[in-house]
Amino acid sequence: MKFAIALHSPAHAPSSRRALLFAKAALAQGHDIVRLFFYQDGVHSASGNVVSPQDESDTAAQWRDFVTTHQLDGVVCIAAALRRGVLNAEEAERYSRSAANLPAPWELSGLGQLHDAVQTADRLICFGGP
Amino acid sequence: MATLHVLSHSPFTDSRLSSCLRVLGSEDAILLCGDATYALRADTATARTLSAKTGTLKLFVLDEDATARNIALPDWAQGVDYAGFVALSVQYDKVNTWL
Amino acid sequence: MAKSLLIISRQAPWSGPDAREALDIALAGGAFDLPVAMLFMDDGVLQLATAQNASQVQQKDLTANLQALSMFGVEDLFACSTSLSERGMQPAGLSVAPLQVLDDPQIAALIDRYDQVITI
Fold first, then answer.
1. Which residues of A touch C21 (CB under 8 A)?
2. What are the residues whose beta carbons fall under 8 Å from the beta carbon of B85, sequence distance 6 or more?
3. Which domains does chain B have, with CATH numbers?
4. Does the predicted TM-score (pTM) go above 0.90?
């Protein structure tokens, strides 16, 4: 089955970790993930500038590893990201901001990518809140 | 068509569970995860509300969240791990997460 | 056939960007000619109140955007009657029309009818 997974919470929210474990379990069962779409506060889960204390898990880094390892389509909503200060190098330059915090493998794109994923997938699963 | 409703907010500070119960379809199910598992704490109004619906409501609970909170599952609720969560999302026609 | 999407908007207009970002999903869907609907329930019905003064709190008024939904091809708009009456709101006095007011069993049937649901 084809899943689209939308994440609406930052890396420090339990629901971000829950989404990641769901995604891993889906792949382990042989399902496909057609796209990960990070929206609202979910854009923070893609931040490359999260620094977790050594004795706490680094969910943002785990997301990055997961998307890279499985070569998934990881899309961060550009409007939601700009509003929250999550920028890749191109956007940081465009808006004259001093730092970029959205590294590869994440791509910035619009809400059309969410709708496209809804159309392609058999299921849309959203994660967010606590 | 049956919907799996997913909740993760504590029912004691939030209205999502009660809103969800209002608009629940006859074939629908609920998966409690995160703080929503507090709904099953013994001797609470939410646990009584949910237990009164056994027979019509299928209730699932993400095991790790209940265990983390030392919440014993009543026999009318079914614990699932992440593999089970994925299986439920396949089994039901859609998943409505109350973000 | 395109999959249908129901967006359930249940946050007050300026409790944060939630109301705006739920609406943006609907507007984007309309722009792509997709079958998208919006249901306002819980505090989301407060987005439908008349005579709001968004500028007082330096926010954008959502009302004009909500009224423009039909121009973007999002014509299926619904509000929850229980949520309206809880908040002392009359179905006749809402800022967005046409909009269908549904009771709880009708909302259950509405959710059932759509292929996918996003509740914000």
1. 39-40, 80
2. A22, A25, B31, B33, B62
3. 3-98 (3.40.1260.10)
4. yes
